[in-house]
Design the sequence.
């Protein structure tokens, strides 16, 4: 492992087993971080832990449903027992939910999204905050919070709420030296996205992106590492869009 920006620091990542969480965890580990890997499924977390440790890093895998207060509290306590501190949090976990127009969206659809995307992120931050001093919190929001993609309005609503939460936390926690920011990923080909996207649609989205491709999880990892590091020591309360230029000039489909 390359010891650099995160040497001696512990970073907790939710939704760490796949996609952007996995890519970010590997990047942070490569830069010297000790990782607390949180997710709902043990197998991907165990595979990631083994990969990090085989490269000389340190990682702790914890299976946890972030919508449950008691489970989050226990996970953070376990992390502190293992590493003694938490220096940063990448609140990445989220679900897309059912794809449908808002007029057809049911309360159960909203409940599931709010439980994970909004309440789960809030609970993770709440329980990590006492341990984070002069550190960083990064929230994974979405380009859909500022742009419009039909049929994902309920999902986008929770991501817009996360941006409001981020800005408030940045003001409240700034005096403690805690920076709070958000990223808005564009079209990123995570397992979640690929499972619900038609290849023809993905090709069309890539065509309308100035860089002429859709993103990969690794395209997010570098921005995560920068915002979590001291290189971004004077950056707080900001949302950074990482989308290859897809949203320039508004949504194009």
Sequence:
């Amino acid at each position: 492992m390359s010891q650099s920006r995160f040497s001696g620091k512990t970073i907790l990542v939710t939704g760490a087993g796949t996609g952007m969480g996995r890519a970010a965890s590997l990047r942070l580990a490569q830069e010297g971080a000790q990782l607390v890997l949180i997710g709902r499924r043990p197998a991907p977390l165990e595979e990631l832990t083994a990969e990090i440790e085989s490269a000389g890093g340190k990682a702790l895998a914890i299976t946890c449903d972030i919508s449950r207060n008691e489970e989050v509290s226990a996970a953070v306590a376990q992390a502190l027992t293992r590493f003694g501190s938490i220096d940063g949090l990448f609140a990445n976990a989220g679900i897309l939910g059912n794809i449908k127009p808002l007029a057809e969206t049911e309360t159960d659809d909203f409940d599931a999204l709010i439980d994970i995307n909004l309440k789960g992120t809030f609970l993770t931050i709440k329980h990590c905050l006492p341990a984070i001093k002069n550190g960083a919190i990064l929230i994974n929001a979405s380009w859909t919070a500022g742009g419009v993609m039909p049929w994902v309005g309920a999902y986008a609503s929770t991501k817009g709420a996360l941006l409001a939460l981020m800005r408030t936390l940045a003001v409240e926690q700034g005096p403690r030296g805690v920076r709070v920011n958000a990223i808005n990923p564009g079209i990123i080909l995570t397992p979640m996205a690929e499972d619900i996207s038609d290849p023809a649609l993905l090709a069309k989205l890539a065509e309308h992106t100035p860089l002429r491709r859709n993103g990969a999880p690794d395209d997010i990892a570098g921005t995560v590492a920068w915002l979590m590091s001291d290189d971004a020591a004077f950056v707080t309360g900001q949302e950074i869009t990482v989308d290859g230029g897809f949203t320039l000039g508004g949504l194009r489909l």
